[in-house]
Structure to design on (146 residues):
């Protein structure tokens, strides 16, 4: 592995691990400590009860988000099914952005959304073969080699 390939691989690994941890660790708390129903009530249903959003959509989104973050974060950490994992967390970011904008039309994105979004975009636009320390790349090399 030459120096450029090695640097790209380490860069991808660090970006993937940081992004995966951001979602996975929070999701562990949301799924196993707080619980998906309480998460939905506390962060979706109660804050948006007086909005134009239907109650059923708040319950559905609020209970689904922790699982999307858990699965997406785990896939990103492993480097498995790259597009699915990034799609799940990217979808969560879009939903969270929409919700914050419903509640506060001039929402500051810099603390929560932007760092995660930049990592999602970075990982989406870089070639997958740069991510040499991923399960996907390991499976690809194994398949080609044997």
């Amino acid at each position: 592995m030459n120096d450029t390939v090695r640097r790209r691989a380490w860069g991808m690994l660090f970006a993937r691990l940081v992004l995966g941890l951001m979602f996975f660790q929070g999701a562990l708390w949301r799924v196993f400590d707080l619980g998906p129903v309480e998460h939905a009530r506390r962060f979706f249903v109660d804050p948006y009860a007086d909005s134009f959003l239907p109650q059923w959509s708040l319950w559905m989104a609020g209970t689904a988000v922790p699982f999307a973050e858990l699965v997406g974060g785990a896939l990103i950490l492993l480097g498995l099914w790259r597009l699915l994992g990034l799609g799940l967390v990217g979808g969560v970011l879009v939903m969270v952005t929409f919700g914050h904008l419903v509640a506060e039309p001039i929402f500051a994105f810099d603390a929560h959304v932007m760092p995660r979004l930049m990592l999602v975009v970075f990982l989406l636009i870089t070639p997958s073969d740069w991510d040499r320390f991923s399960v996907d790349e390991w499976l690809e090399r194994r398949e080609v080699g044997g």
